[in-house]
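fold-stage: in
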Amino acid sequence: MLGTLNDIEIEEVLARNYLGRLGCTDGETVYVVPVNYIYMDGYFIAHSTEGKKIKFMRKRPGVCFEVDEMEDMMNWRSVIAWGNYEEITNELDKQKWLDLMVQKMMKLKVSETALPPHAMQNRPRPHQAGSISVVLWRIAVSKKTGRFEKN
């Protein structure tokens, strides 16, 4: 049976998960990338080093975010949310959200690809000494929709 998730079910899917796909554009190229996140109070919160997605979102803050839960091909839930990118610059807010992210992510198995760039032995992107620029950001959700299939 195919169906539509209600608002409570949508919120549960978003809060229960930690990996989604961010869709953004610079006006010419569409970019979709997996992102680790926490979801709370109508916001996706994440962090990144300076790169393509940050550049795109700064240029065009309207984005899309998608989260799936899949038991098998006939039992799944999927949520799509739209909203606007915002950088978190207030130091107290940054610390609050980083603490929450650490609490949630520490429960997960950490792989080399999940480590922050400054903790990697072979960095994916070179940097100048002392110039690691981590951007803490959020998506203020303005619209959500969800679907499911249950066998």
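fold-stage: in (second)
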Amino acid sequence: MSVTEFRIQEWIGDPPEPFAAPEYYRGVLWRRVLAYCIDLLALGFILVMVAIALGALTVLSIGFLSPLWVIYGLTPLAYHTLLIGGQRSATLGMRLFRIEVRSWTGERPNYIQALVQTVLFYLTTAATLWLILLVAPFNRRKRTVHDLVAGTLVIRRFPLAEVMTPD
């Protein structure tokens, strides 16, 4: 037996059940947590750069460009939305831990779906002090509330599957 990688194909109808295709879901929860930690580091770096640029613009314009600081607040929203809705459907942390977001039908999420998921993530986690994320361990596909409402799920990007190969 040898181990080979295969790409996840879009599915028709409901996503594969965890008992039928466990490779899609195995280890997703811990990968999501660690991926978010990486995303926090990346976002921290981006926010420092944005703050420096906005600070310089504010000083150089004698305060006239200070309304641009709204960009600072929108940066985390843009980070998650643009990366999840993009070609790889994963943030930098998700890419590192080989997971991705898919719509319920198996397609990559579009930017609207990524925006909905991101807004719901920030709203639900802030309102419940992150307790809402405790829903994930108790459902079959390890989906969080923002995944359920947005119609998305997180799966392994290139799950490993054992296949028989002739010697």
